[in-house]
Amino acid sequence: MFHLSHWKRPTMTSNITLSALALSAALTVSSMADAKTITAVMHSDLRIIDPIFTTAYITRDHGYMVYDTLLATDSNFKIQPQMADWKVSDDKLTYTFTLRDGLKWHDGTPVTAEDCVASLQRWGKRDGMGQKLMDFTASIEATDAKTITLKLKEPYGLVLESLGKPSSLVPFMMPKRLAETPGDKQIPEQIGSGPFKFVQSEFQPGVKAVYEKNKDYVPRKEAPSWTSGGKVVKVDRVEWITMPDAQTAVNALQSGDIDFMENPSFDLLPVLTGNKEIKVETLNKLGFQTLGRMNFLYPPFDNVKVRRAAFLAMNQKNVLDALVGNPEYYKICGAMFVCGTPLATEVGADTLVKGNGMAEAKKALAESGYDGTPIVVMAPGDVVTLKAQPIVAAQLLRDAGFKVDVQATDWQTVVSRRASQKPPKEGGWNMFFTNWVGADVLNPIANVSVGGRGKNGGWFGWPEDAKIEQLRDAFARASSPEEQKKIAADIQKEAYEQVIYIPLGQYFAPSVWRKSISGVLDGPATPVFWNIEKSE
Which of 505, 55, 501 is nearest to 301 (CA)? Predict the structure, then answer.
């Protein structure tokens, strides 16, 4: 059995280590000078800053700092007004959204319905739920400066859930001039209407990202709940500091050089739980689904028989033991739509959850026509929750008879490279691993990994499966929970048979912070930095 402790952490270059230590020392002076600055080490370095361009969670987190949404989700999974209220016609075909007063972009101009329409159209081309909503949409237009009118071709039950979805890709609103940027290109500047402003002049990818309180932001009156309610900023400034080495970050937290750490490594948690100045809490109670994704465009995974052999070789327990180690923080789970939810089923997941498919994998690979093409696996070494999966999976693939080329990299390179449709020999890839928060995979419309749109708007890997798309349409039209559950099970069965993706279990990742800060909110898209107070 493979354990994370058996795997040596990639050696950091000396200049990065020194810069992190120097930065840590500088932060001590900074925090003493200004107690209203929160310093945080996030789960990843921030490089891509367009929240519609990528599903990477660090970019989503950046999006919540800078941008706002028309609707939002509260802790009861109820959709609430955020930038807009809404009305629905009796025939369920027309949704009218009215922008609330006081909305301004960071450049001082008013938020208009035209801006929001352009934002929804850009999001609707990129996001799985957005794409499905647009399939059912007859028109979406600004009827006046504050009114957005969405007309459907037929009733669709997930309109509000789509516009208020809490996680990737979130339908963030941006000025029309930015929203008109093609979805496959990044927007040229960061102008939102959210509670913080992005300080472009201080942005140093690989070092830090800085946000200042948006003094013109008018919060809602309601109490904050998940991504809904009043986004009241109670500090002047938030700095996200990059510290790739987990031990360095933990030392900085304990010494008070930083205030918050999103994802400490699981092996360091006992040290932190024993520190009376540190609070340890799992903010995302739904947890994460970790998964492997293959590239369907090139050999060998363009062959379903080869994909099936790889699937049979996978073993959730091996992955979770290496990733997490402590069973208190993980769950073996074959449900694509998350265990413990209404749509949970184990259909098709037998060998994954039992870990008994290796003999069958070897036989399937021998019969598949696999010609020894190396599997290019991207392996990021800088994110605690993404290090173990490619290493364990690569060994399981080798055990089954595959040749594997593990390419060490960092997560932001994976985020950029996985969008490439070039052949593996030209900088492309065959397999990568990632994590979805539970809220992003709760149903077949939200779960973009299960889609079958291929190169026509599909998620990285680009599987094409007409049957799955037909079933997803049927799910969207389903009128009863029983019907939805049956269709979801049919989708999971097809997805496992075609190996659309490989769920590798659920895990729960605690965050840690100094007790000098309070008001940290929980939710499916955490951390958020409104509502947090910092004592002297």
Answer: 501
